[in-house]
Amino acid sequence: MATSERGTGTSQSLERGLAILSSFNSDRSLIGVSELSRDLELSRSTTHRYIATLAQLGYLQQDPDSRRYRLGPKVLDLGFSAINAMDLREIAAPHLRQLSDETQHTVNLAILDGIDVVYIERCRTTGPGQRDIDLNLHVGARLPAYCTAMGKAILAFVSEDHLASVIEKIDFAPRGPNTLTSPEAFREELGRIRLSGIAVNNEELAYGLRSIAAPIHSNSGDVIAALNLAVHRTMASMEELIAHYGPAVSRTARDISLGMGHRVAPA
After folding, report:
1. pLDDT for res 1
2. Is pLDDT of 130 > 70?
3. What is the mean pLDDT of residues 23-48?
4. pTM for the whole thing?
5. I need a labelling partner for 38 at 20 to 30 A (CA). Which of 65, 107, 125, 267 fits?
6. Based on the domain organization, do 168 and 196 belong to the same domain?
7. Among candidates 10, 65, 71, 79, which has minimal Cα distance to 36?
8. Which domain holds residue 30?
9. Cβ neighbours of residue 242 under 8 Å, at least 6 residues apart?
10. Position 136 pLDDT exceeds 80
11. Are 102 and 216 members of one domain?
12. What's the pLDDT tens digit per position in 118-129?
């Protein structure tokens, strides 16, 4: 089979195939051939050929009713293989379970990918109100970073150039009653997080959902992830959330950072 090779030594066909897969996200789970053709600036016949190949290999599936496409199980296999290969997940898992057992609340771990956070571990509880804030989340789920405690906990510590590029791409749409909807307000919030080391989500993502998060550092000192503890608004006020669970969340993030080889300054 002939493949088109670019002058850089890379495969244009592979780039196009990956671009098609990258077009799918949580807000755009079903896409038609014509949409992808416009997005990629390819002819409809060329786009259909790539899609047919990806579908045959199991990376895409066609919805029988709409005739549009969604990601297939092969993509999940790749994602879970990547997640399972992460040292971070292995190191963090027992600490997350301990925090969840101690507090009887759901605890999550996420990394930043573009303008989203991607969940790489969950320790879920079944306490009262938990179903109201689960939001169908699972390992591999993506949420907008700007309206989540974990996203803000990571973005507060990235370089200014990185932050500027992320903010430029964010659509600050209201998601919950208290979503921050301007870059200025978002930057002010990140400044507060840098000072306190703790990020909160007070119904910014969805009604009723509150959470508190802390960043996790690599051995180089860079923030590579964040963990959070999530509650329903009926379980705790924001003041109670910070006072009762902030120290435990910070301690757990610190312990995971130590496990990653980060030299944490004495508390």
Report:
1. 37
2. no
3. 89
4. 0.70
5. 65
6. yes
7. 71
8. 12-74
9. 198, 200, 212
10. no
11. yes
12. 999 998 876 665
The pLDDT assigned to 253 comes to 97
Residue 205 lies in a domain: yes
For the chain, give the secondary structure using H, E and C. Answer: CCCCECCCCCEHHHHHHHHHHHCCECCECCECHHHHHHHHCCCHHHHHHHHHHHHHCCCEEECCCCCCEEECHHHHHHHHHHHHCCHHHHHHHHHHHHHHHHHCCEEEEEEEECCEEEEEEEECCCCCCHHHHCCCCCCCCEEEHHHCHHHHHHHCCCCHHHHHHHHHHCCCCCCCCCCCCCHHHHHHHHHHHHHHCCEEEECCCCCCEEEEEEEEECCCCCEEEEEEEEEECCCCCHHHHHHHHHHHHHHHHHHHHHHCCCCCCCC
In the block, tokens 């978002």 appear at: 186
Report the pLDDT value the prediction gives residue 4, as an integer from 0 to 100. 47
What digits encode the pLDDT tens for the residues 209-254?
Answer: 999 999 999 888 889 999 999 999 988 899 999 999 999 999 999 9
Q: What is the dihedral of CA 31, 34, 36, 42, to 10 degrees?
A: 170
Amino acid identity, residue 160? E
